[in-house]
Amino acid sequence: MGRKLKRICQNGHTFFKSSDCPTCPTCEKLKEPASGFLSNLSNPARNALLFHGIDTVEKLSKYSEKVILKIHGIGKASLPAFKSALEESGLAFRSNDKNNNSNY
Ligand SMILES: [Zn+2]
Description:
By secondary structure, this protein is mainly α. The protein is built from five helices and two strands, in the order ββααααα. A hairpin with a 5-residue loop joins strand 1 and strand 2 (14-17). The radius of gyration is 16 Å and the shape is elongated. The site of zinc ion has 6 residues, from helix 1.
C-alpha cells in the first residue's frame, strides 16, 4: 500500500500516484488518437473540450457558441473548426436563448 502522492502535471491536471511514475492519466487519455472532430482541433482546444466531457459533436451541439467561448483554452480561432464539424453532422450550436439556465 504505497502512499499516494498528489501531483499536478504540466497541463494542470491533478492526479494521484503511488509510484514515482509521473504519468498523468488524463494526459495519457489525451494522447490516444482523437476521433472524429477532435482530431481536427488544436491541442489546447481539444484538451479544453475533453476537460468538460465534450468528446463528440453531439455533445458540442448542446452548448451555445457563447458558452463554448467561455471555456478556458477555447478561442474564436477554434470556432470555424467547431462549426464545420457540426455542419458535417447536420448539427449546430445551441441557440443563445434567453432562459439558458438549464444547460450551464
Ligand atoms: Zn495531465
